[in-house]
Amino acid sequence: MRNSVFDEWEQHLDRVLDGGDPGGWTALDEHVRAALRWGPVAPGLTRFPVGTDGRPPTASELAVALCGPDGRLREAALAYVTDVPALLPLAVIRCADWAGPVRERARAVLRAELPRLTPEALGPVAPVILRVAGRAHGDTARELLLQVLRTGPEAGAFALLASGDRAVRRLAHRIAVERGLLSPARLATTAARDADVVVQDLCANAVLATATPDPAVLDLLLTARPGRTRAAGVTALRRAGRAGEAEPFLYDRSALVRACARYVLRQAGTEPLPLYRAACAAGYPRTPHHAPVGLAECGDRTADAPTLWSLTGHALPQVRASAVVGLRLMDAVRPGRLAPLLDDSSPRVVREARKALSPWA
Question: What is the pTM of this model?
Answer without folding.
Answer: 0.84
